[in-house]
Amino acid sequence: MNGNQVVIRRQMDEMRLDELVGAVINPIQVPAEALKGLKPMPLAPRSLSLQAQRLPQLVWFDDIPDLLRGTLPKRIEYWRHKGVTLLSALVDTTASVDAVTRHLQDLFFAPASEDGTVALRRFYDPRVFLHLPWILDRRQMMSVMGPINVWAWPDGGGGWQYHKNDERFALFKPTATRLNFSQKQKVTLSRLPLINQVSEALSASMPDFDQNAAFFRSVDQLLAEAKEKGIVDDRDCRLYVTQAFQFGPDIHKHPDMEACCIKATSSTISYVEACSDLSDEMLAHYAVEGKRKVL
Question: For a surface tag, which of 122, 145, 170, 190 has the fewest beta carbons within 10 Å of its beta carbon?
Answer without folding.
Answer: 170
